[in-house]
Amino acid sequence: MTSKQAMSSNEQERLLCYNGEVLVFQLSKGNFADKEPTKTPILHVRRMVFDRGTKVFVQKSTGFFTIKEENSHLKIMCCNCVSDFRTGINLPYIVIEKNKKNNVFEYFLLILHSTNKFEMRLSFKLGYEMKDGLRVLNGPLILWRHVKAFFFISSQTGKVVSVSGNFSSIQWAGEIENLGMVLLGLKECCLSEEECTQEPSKSDYAIWNTKFCVYSLESQEVLSDIYIIPPAYSSVVTYVHICATEIIKNQLRISLIALTRKNQLISFQNGTPKNVCQLPFGDPCAVQLMDSGGGNLFFVVSFISNNACAVWKESFQVAAKWEKLSLVLIDDFIGSGTEQVLLLFKDSLNSDCLTSFKITDLGKINYSSEPSDCNEDDLFEDKQENRYLVVPPLETGLKVCFSSFRELRQHLLLKEKIISKSYKALINLVQGKDDNTSSAEEECLVPLCGEEENSVHILDEKLSDNFQDSEQLVEKIWYRVIDDSLVVGVKTTSSLKLSLNDVTLSLLMDQAHDSRFRLLKCQNRVIKLSTNPFPAPYLMPCEIGLEAKRVKLTPDSKKEESFVCEHPSKKECVQIITAVTSLSPLLAFSKFCCTVLLQIMERESGNCPKDRYVVCGRVFLSLEDLSTGKYLLTFPKKKPIEHMEDLFALLAAFHKSCFQITSPGYALNSMKVWLLEHMKCEIIKEFPEVYFCERPGSFYGTLFTWKQRTPFEGILIIYSRNQTVMFQCLHNLIRILPINCFLKNLKSGSENFLIDNMAFTLEKELVTLSSLSSAIAKHESNFMQRCEVSKGKSSVVAAALSDRRENIHPYRKELQREKKKMLQTNLKVSGALYREITLKVAEVQLKSDFAAQKLSNL
Predict the structure, then answer these.
(1) Which residues are 276's β-sheet partners?
(2) Which of 237, 239, 238, 211 is nearest to 225 (CA)?
(3) Is this model's pTM higher than 0.70 or not?
(4) Which CATH number fits domain 473-532+572-649: 2.30.30, 2.60.40, 3.90.79, 1.10.10?
(5) Full DSSP string of 412-458
(6) pLDDT, mean of residues 670-691
(7) Rounded to 5°, angle at Cα 635 from 633 and 640
């Protein structure tokens, strides 16, 4: 945080702020104005913090440093905070001057650590006294002016170096990212011969003979002399504070504020003045930036006349002013996370404690040492004027927000209109009606795929192919009302084989008083039930595990059809696609109509998925139908399920739970006994695999399906009204199950679970086979390499004996014998490796055969 020093009436006392604390440095024993030298001077430091409870500054800790110079005069030059290049941490420092005899001046810089211990970081001697332009920069580095030249010394080098640039004054010195330590000041420049033909006036010479430059201390060269401050301001600028820097196209651009001799605060951006504020006092000398939080930034300007003022950065207007001050410090003194300004008045440094001060952030935070604010105008000269400064920015912000809100609302209305028109055009196209959309309405509709105008006929042909007649795929449509749900079912032809991932049944609500269509939120389910009874899979005499796996892996669809036809259990199957939606929102209408739209996604080999749309029909429902009980599903005692549509409605609306039951020690013959005797279930004649529970109470109406895979394992599916009924069924089932029986909840359903299991086993089988292939390939590679080596040796021998043809034939025979020998030995795999690979292959093939057998029985 920014720290500023202060000097009391005694020149041997200075103050600064550091991390919310006020540090008071005092050089004891004697005054610098005394003629006689002091005896063993001591530098004292006191850390003071603000107590929010008592609203006073209290002493936190103290420290001291003994200066062993008995025959010298000492003087505090300055104090502030800089970063040490060894750690990069900002620490307080103090510079002390020691005046010896023969006009020899020695300077040393002390750094104060958190333990209140002083460290002498830099010391050097000069043959003159530093009186003008003393600055301490990060490093630490000391910069000063003597006569017309500038010098600096760093703690890293310990040598005094002169600045090569011909500067007349330096307005700012500091560190810029990627540029290092730089100086900004006025540099004299020579006029060209053409400009010197006429003798300029003194004012013109002062303006055009100097310009602002940015100078690098590391490279000792000028970095930039443009986009800083125009030459017209060079004679009036007295202080500069850099706010931001950036490099654009290898050119340095600077945003800064400057104080002028005309009592102005001016903001410059890339060399162009942007804002000007006329200050309330004369002779401004320094500027500090204060961030009070919430985006409120202020420039706090100090004046030589011991006055100060605050200027809003946003509006560049004076927000507050104060008089008769001795010090202005900016830091987080109360620990709120934002900055405040500490105003010390003239009589506050005459004692060991701060007696007269004020802390404020120009907002809600206000602390004062006075019992009451004796002069409200010191903070806000005119409350009505301050209100006028705050209200306009708020009004502008509100106007911008309202404008954005109106644009967003118009955008949403337009989007809703486009979607409504698109739905209407789509439904008319699906139902085969004439599209009565006007030309003005057509302008609102845009092609979703970026089609050009000449592709309209092609698009119509594609739509005619995608939208198929419902008579080809749909046999029947029905709907039922169960509790608070509306169930719509579509019975498809047996030739259409679908899964839940390939089909979507949608309900589009068509309101009579509105032309818009509303898409209802639905939950889809594909239900497949076999009409023929079949024996348990483990009682079938044929082995189908390996064959089933081969059929599922083959890309030929004819083989799959022939294999499926071999099993009568798969021959006759009823397939129903259902959509369940909430009935409560629909009861707000006396009558409503929904269009049932079936979307089918077909996966063609080598091509992207293709969608087909089928309009299945329309659903009409009214409050009168619900009052008379029409379409309402009930359970008469004599006939549990009168229509098969009621069964499918229950399977769609009820909660489905799937469990895998495993009994390693005993056969699961008691499952059917439990279903038929304990749960009083009745087998549905049309679908023998479904059991309807007629047990009185909450169990009535629950549906079960039991598929026994082996004598010791099977899958039980429970369709219940709610979770409570499901847990009651499981509690009743546990009583009759054998000992050490395991139940596993298959969350994704039996079919998805078995598919994932088979995919996992097939993957393991492929990995094992690939390891076998890699072993064979390794031995084959070794054989080929050895053959190439032998071939190379034979070619060398043949070239050497090319003049003796009678000797070539024996070498060829020898080469053939070597090849046969290597072929017999090098391609053999070790017995241990062979046994390991074959055992792994057998294990994974057995598991994948078993998974394929389970999946084929679904």
Answers:
(1) 266
(2) 211
(3) no
(4) 2.60.40
(5) HHHHHHHHHHHHHHHHHHHHT------HHHHTT---TT---GGGHHH
(6) 89
(7) 120
